[in-house]
Amino acid sequence: MTFGRFLCGMIATAMMLAAAIVDGRAAGAFSVGNCGAYGFSYDYQEAEAARQAAAGKCDGACKTIPVTKACAAFAVDVKNACGAHGYATAPKLGAAQNTALKQCYNFGGKDCMIRAWICDIKG
Question: Which residues of the chain have pLDDT under 50?
Fold first, then answer.
């Protein structure tokens, strides 16, 4: 009986810790710029810290978008990295990648491909 109670207590403690980790770290960001420049961050506790980390990894004038409990993708035209590009966020990776590719082609890209992607903890 004592060992059974101990085991139940350990399992309950482990489940509470796992829930706290999953709920507490779900902020990310994706920065995109000219000529294929990008930066990203994921699984930060604070959205502002995630934004700063992503922006700090992107060269030049970059736009930073939040990625919270989602995925993000960035597509560029590989024949002209300074030309057409697209980016998107979505609840699932496939949807983010598809939308980023569609944007790249819609903006004139001829040979678009995914350059980078991230999924935050719940994406």
Answer: 1, 3-4, 6-23, 123
Q: Give per-residue burial for 26-39: e unless 16+ CB within 10 Å, then b.
A: bbbbbbbbeebbbb
Q: In degrees rounded to 5, what are phi and psi of residue 41? A: -150, 155
Query: Which residues contact residue 63 at a Cβ distance below 8 angstroms, ignoring those fewer than 6 apart?
Result: 31, 32, 33
Tokens encoding 67: 């990625």
Q: Where are the domains of the chain?
A: 25-119
pTM: 0.74
* C-alpha 97, offset from chain centre: 11
Nearest CA to 52 among 84, 19, 29, 34? 29
| Phi, psi of 37, rounded to the nearest 5 degrees | -70, 140
**How would you class 65 by CB atoms within 10 Å of its CB: exposed for 0-12, middle for 13-18, buried for 19 or more?**
middle
